Known about the structure:
Layout: E1 2-3, E2 8-9, H1 15-54, H2 73-77, H3 80-83, H4 93-108, E3 112-118, E4 121-127, H5 152-171
Antiparallel strand pairs: 1-2, 3-4
Amino acid sequence: xxxxxxxxxxxxxxxxxxxxxxxxxxxxxxxxxxxxxxxxxxxxxxxxxxxxxxxxxxxxxxxxxxxxxxxxxxxxxxxxxxxxxxxxxxxxxxxxxxxxxxxxxxxxxxxxxxxxxxxxxxxxxxxxxxxxxxxxxxxxxxxxxxxxxxxxxxxxxxxxxxxxxxxxxxxxxxxxxxx
Length: 179
C-alpha cells in the first residue's frame, strides 16, 4: 500500500498473520488426536496424488477444426488406427503397407517423397522445400515394430505426430530451410 500524501511505502507485515495461521492450524491438528491426524495426512496425500496424476493427462487437445497451419492432436490420431492395425516388423508385408501409407500421406501434403532402400531397410524420406534454403532440418521417426506389437506407443505415436507436424508445416508459410 502507498500513502499518497508522502508517496512512501507503508510497511505491511504478513509474517505475523502467517504465524497466527500456522499456530491456529497446529492447535487444530493437535486437538484431533492420532486418528484424526492420520485422516488429515491421508486426505493431503490423496490430494497430492490426484493432482500429480492429473498432470499426466492432457486437459485439452487441439481439435481437428484448428487452423490448417496449427498442429492438432485430433488430426494426428486419425492415422494411428491405420499404422497400428497390426505388427509390422522390418521386411514384412505389413511394414510395406505402412510404408506405402506414409509415403502416400506425405505425397498428398505436396511433399517430395522418396523411398530409400538400403540393406533391407526402407526409409521414407519427404522434403518440404524451403524458400531460401541454407540447410535442412531433419524430423524423423522409425515406423517398424517388433513382431508381437502393433506399435501404437512404440513408435506409432511419434510417426503420427511427425505426419501432423509435416502437414502443418506444409499448410503454413513456406519455411526458409528445407524440412
